[in-house]
Each structure stands twice: as structure tokens, then as C-alpha cells.
């Protein structure tokens, strides 16, 4: 019995370390490459942690239909992989490492309760840096001189350095802050203790201001939409009452932002950018890439050009920023993998959403308040990522790391939910 407990404790510790490592790698990957170690070294550490978790669960991988879509997902990535064809491997290796975590998460689930707070703790330096660099531009200049050596994209050659803060691109900074905002929203929503709720609320307010300062309209829009969706999922009863509260909260937030903008006028930039949506150069550039991707899809509609095919197709001769992707995951998957790959992709996404919805209902029905935070955090991140897929490169860049962590949390809970409910009931009886 003691040996079994020891094995489970080691497994729990390893899963926490693995999730923490991936979160650090996700938030600060470019800085890590400059200051600490290369991608190859980090991926070796990552793979080693995954292997150790398998050893901790006695070299057993749970047999479940939930894993099937992700096995096909890996096959889709490897089939006619254009990164391999061009002598490279790093991005493919990274994505496969992400997906592999799904297969090692099912042995035990007590670790999942730590993840929402870990997302906040590891990502909050991005919020702090954004606010600090707004106040102290000279500190930003020192940071740049000692790290990147050049101003990041989106900062207009350092004029708005706070937009990118610690990240290599202002869009990446907005993504990292969005994850913190979403996790804090769930922590605030589910917290019952007043002091803790106030603490989460203060952090949430600061993080929302930081998100506004990045001037990224898509991130703001999708954060709001994801939060509203999860708010209704969390409280399915009395929807009319909840809608009224939501409207009141929206009015209070709008009033608060109006006051804050008097002291921090830079947050108005994001709202000004909404006025140019559809006509600015960023949007027009996306239209060019989407049309190009559709043309590639027509050339091979069944299987596509192969994973990463869009980026190696010559599009960069037309749009240099296409190197990072099509800026619409759904269209790029069609281009890369054709109808067959697109179906695999959609099945994987829907399967993850399905078990997440089941988890939320299970937590509500069984009054598992301590785990409700976990499943709602998973849901809000998945909702954000699936919406952001329409304008970003979620399934190809580091945003995928956050998405897969959300999936892993959901899968782990789902496969152990009956045991979780039993243990929670035992605790109630004991008390």
C-alpha cells in the first residue's frame, strides 16, 4: 500500500513538473533560447519528463477510445510532412511532444487542481512587464539591449515597447496575457472566500488592462466571448437572472474602463483598431493568405500538400509574414491535409469539447466544487483557442501548448471522474 502511494505521489509530482515546464516553455520560449538553452535541449528535457511519467505509471498507457483521435492527429502531422522534406524537424517535434502528453495524463488526477493557478503564476510576469514597461520605457530599453538586441514586431521600433513586453512579438504577448486573464476569470468565478475573490479580482483587473495595452483586438474579443460562454456553462440554471447580472457587469466594466482610460489613454488604441477591421493592412494581408491556401487546397483536395505545406509553398515570396502561418487554422489544415486531414482535425477538437462538456455536467451534478474550477478553466481556454483559430495560428505556434494543456486537464479528469467523486464524498462524510 505504501509503495503504491509512493508511485502515485511520484507520478503526481512529475505531472506537475511536466505541466510547469511546458507552461514556462510556452510563455518564454524565445527568451529561453537567447538566455538559457536551445530548443533541442528543451525538447530533450520535455521528452525525458514524459518518459519518466510513463515509468511512474508502471509503463502502462490506458486503453481508451479518447486517445484514438489524437493518434490519428499525429499520423496526420507525419503524413507527407513538408518540414521533414526540407530537412527540418523542430516544429513537428514540438507538436508531437504536446500531443504525447494526452496519453500519459490518465493515471491519476489530483494534480489537475494545481494547473489553473500555475497558468497564472507562470504567466503573470508578462502582465507585470507590460505594465512596468508602460510606466518606465527606459527599463524596456535596457531589457531589449540585454536580450533581443532589436525591437519586437508590433512595437513600432520600440515606440510602444510595452505591447510586446517580454515576448518576441506583440501578438504572442497578447496570447500569454489572455491565458492569464482566462484562468483568473475562472478562479474569480468559482472562488467563494471573499478575501481570495478580491485578490483574484485585482489580478484579473490588472491583467485585463495589460491585455488592452497590447492593442490586440482579436484576443480581447475572443477572451470576452469565451468568458461569457463559460459563465453560462457554469450556471445553467436561472439564465435570465444570469443574463441580467452579465449586463450589469458589462456596464460596470465599461464604466471602469472609461475611468481608467483617463489615466492610461494607451488602452484606447485597441478600440480604435476595431474601427479599421476589414480594411487595415493586417486584415487585407490575411485575405491574400486565405485565398492562396484555398488555391493550394483545390490542387489536392483529398490529402492536401502535407503538414506545413502552406509555409513551404512559395507564399513567403508574396507575404513574408506567411512564414508563421495562414492566420486561419481551419483553412490552413484544409490546405495542408485536405478533406481527410480536416475531418481528423475536427473530430479531435469535437472529442475534446464533448468530454469537457460532460465534465462540467458531472461536476455540477455531483457538487465537485474543487474540480469545477479545473473543468471550467479547460473549457474557457479551449473556447478561446477554437475562436482564435479563425484569425491566428493556434494549432501551429505556442498557443497550441496552452490548448493541449486544457485538453490534458479535461481528459485526466474524465478518465478518473468516478474515483474523484467517490473520494470527494468520502471527505464530506469524514467531515
UniProtKB/TrEMBL annotation:
Keyword terms: Ligase, Membrane, Transmembrane, Transmembrane helix
GO MF terms, alphabetically ordered: ligase activity
Membrane topology value: Multi-pass membrane protein
Xref: InterPro entries: O-antigen_ligase-rel_domated, WaaL-like
Compartment list: Membrane
Membrane spanning stretches: 12-31, 43-59, 118-135, 173-190, 197-213, 219-234, 246-264, 333-354, 374-394, 400-416
Entry GO terms, CC: membrane
O-antigen ligase-related domain ranges (all copies): 204-346
Organism domain of life: Bacteria
Full protein name: O-antigen ligase family protein
Organism in which the protein naturally occurs: Gallintestinimicrobium propionicum
